[in-house]
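Morning!

This is the sequence you dropped in the shared folder:
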Amino acid sequence: MTIQSERSVGDLSRLRIDRDARPRRPWLAWAVVAMLVAAGVAVYPTARALVDERRAPEVDVARATQVVAEPGGTTALPVLVATGYVVARRSSDVGVKIGGRLARLGFEEGTRVRKGEVIAEIEHADIDAQLEASRRAVAEAEAQLVQMIAARDEDERALERQRQLSKDGITTTAALTAAEAAAAVSAARVRSAEAAIASSRARVRVTDEALENTNVRAPFDGVVIKKRAEVGETVSPFGVAGQATREGGAIATIADLGELEVQTEVSENSIAKLTPAMPAEVKLQAYQDHAYKGRLRQIFPSADRAKSIVEVRVTILDADAHVKPEMTASVTFQEDRHEKRSEKNGARSGAGTMPPAPVVLVPKRAVMEQNGQSIVWIVSGGTATRRAVTLGADRLDRVEVRSGVAAGEMVVVNPPARLSDRALVRVKGT
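The structure's back. Tokens below.
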């Protein structure tokens, strides 16, 4: 016990007060804490906004577009798109009427021909000989007719003499009867000679027609777009070995390039959208930057039940040298709103019509149904706002909006289900 007390007293004797040490400042720690809290309060809204923005759903947007009246006063809206091929309204595989070897061809691809022009000939030396023989037969029959007429006239004069002698009682009845028979035979020979002449002339016409059949003539004004034979080939109206059955005896394909149209097919489900003389826009796959004016000419009266399609023909109204048969083309059928409005206004007032109002279109994928009402989400300043709309007609992948959306506003495409009114959103790609 004595030893431990002495050690404790020794330790305490070492304690000293440092008069030169700086005084402590406990308020400094509190000041630092206060500054940190103030900084946190100042930064919190911005940080919260950044966090909220990061958590905001990412959406696709599209801009509402406006279709305005054209200079002519129409507002054409797309209704349906179809693809097909350019064809000539009048096109013919020109063939031969009789078989034989081609002696001459007067065309190449691109040659312009006139209606009735001889474009090819078949060898016809044998027919020429037949024609010459037929003409000689006519000449022979005509000479025989002259002889028969002379003999008939002589027999008629002899008969007249016998009749005079019979009246005077000089000749016998047998002589008169013989003269009458000879005159009748001569008259019959004349009629036979006349029939022979007619028959010979008919054979001449038949042979002449056979000679004409060796000529191949253009059926209408047009352009040769395909050459199918060469000089020296043997052709037939029914085709020959090695030739496609559908071509038959065709030696050329001629088309009237003045009337070109697009042959396309439309699904049975969409055919009700088309109307007679409907305007259309035609684009060639080779020249996508140029659009041609078109008009629906014909909807075929029957459908293909195997494919569930109906064939449709669209006339190209302003075709130029770039448009060629068999080119691939797309057709955008359009509804002429000006014509429809003109009919309505004309029926009401019977006077002039006003130009159609602009039309606003949005993607169909931007429209939703909520509680039986059509809505879209408008994005402005990073916020999505719910807005009710009144819809019009469908236009391909877009729909007409009659009220609720202005042209140029951004709408959400395929809006997410968790989107709420005035919620923050992030636009993809920004």
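Headline: Residues 125-212 form one domain.

More detail when I'm at my desk.
O.
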